[in-house]
Amino acid sequence: METYCIYLRKSRADADAEARGEGETLARHEHILSELAKKQKYHISKVYREIVSGETIAARPQMQQLLQDVESGIYAGVLVMEVERLARGDTIDQGIVAQAFKYSDTKIITPVKTYDPNNEYDEEYFEFSLFMSRREYKTIKRRMQAGRFAAAKEGKYVGNVPPYGYDRQKLDHDSGFTLVPNPEEAKIVKMIFEWYVHGAIMEDGTKQRLGSTLIAYRLHDMGFTTRKGERWSLNTVRSILTNPVYAGMIRWGYRPQKKVMKNGAVTKSRPNITTDDYVLVRGLHEPLISQEDYDAAQELAHDKRTIPKVNMDKTLKNPLAGILICKKCGKFMTRRPFGAKRRQDTILCKTPDCDNVASDLCLVEQRILDSLQAWLHHYEMQWQGHQPAPEIDNSEQIAAIDALKKEQEKAKQQLEKAYDLLEQGIYDTNTFVERSATLKAKISDTQKRIEKLEHNMQEQSSREREMQELIPKVRHLLAVYDTLPDAAAKNQMLCQVIEKAEYYKAHSARWHGSVDDFEVVIYPKLPR
Q: In the β-sheet with 324-326, what is the strand arrangement from edge to edge?
């Protein structure tokens, strides 16, 4: 018995119809396609319901699953309201869909027409329908962008997420949204601008202007968090200080979204690159601060950002970069260059509230080399007299792999038999779906176990070789380290033999202890 499936996906027009009270779209479509299947005596084994909105296949998990099942050839046809529901993305996505149905000889069945991908005329009609669907999608998208641009020019808020300090509210007697102050958040926004422009009252009663970093610290000390419950940061405070929405303005299109190809996939981002083609108008919402305070904040921020930085040397200066981490918080330690009050480069943890005390970089670096020397001596002592086996015995692993392959082949035969029982009418649809799902899971699980055993065999054969290679690597590093030309070369060699190193110092040498009273624990790159 041939099996079929139903694919349901909600379009933007469907969402608009639901907003007008015309009923739930997926349920209505499922009823129509189920009636069609009943009339044509199609046996439906599964229904795919796409409840997320996505332009590409990568953003639609149910479509990905459908294509995998179609490519495996388990369906004679797929019932869908329109072919446009299958692919509205770019030509690559449309080609993937067309090829999946063509090479699996799977029909596309709509209430209006049945498409046979291997029929020349149906194939052309199918591809033309996808092309027109893409063109319609672009037209709708262009129209929506123009609508947002026009709404922004009218002072309406066209974003989905309101800025911190505001809530989004539907306009009375008009389409679109505006912003209304959120009492709790608005109070914090006003404090940020007050502290940045006019200053905050300190413990001694004086008033002192605070920068973005000090404002973030002060908000944290007062127990305030961001909307997501996270700690305030320099960038979060700065984004508030530079947003004209708090002065009663609406800005739209300032940092447009960019699409780039990365690792073979399209990714979206909003790079910190502004454009002149954006909307900046007086909004319909109530400002939280005065225009004078906002302008003053921009001048202060601009003066700080425009400090010239000439001939910045971007070469690596920290030989422990990417290696040394703070034992207290787990973050990477940072190099602080020497200055008027420091004769040496120091290493410190920049995590707020972390009490790990800084030390001279050269002392920490030497401690790591000494620890590496001690570890090498101990490691070589362990290897003295050790003779590696001439050949590793993998007979048990090979036997286990052979047994798993036989078990997998048996499950595949059982799956083939399940298809035969379904065609003969011995299995009903529910029994077949349950039985086939169990067998497919068993086949997949067995394959994973086979791959794991094969991987373990490969690792076992290379483990002893890696252990033997580690000793000369460490010995060579210790011999040539002081002759290396720069920090980058030292860092490269250290990264080859050290996985990480943990650092902790409890007290400053200024009050008690010595400058080298700190703890360093190294983790060499032993084969796993």
A: 324-326, 498-504, 519-524
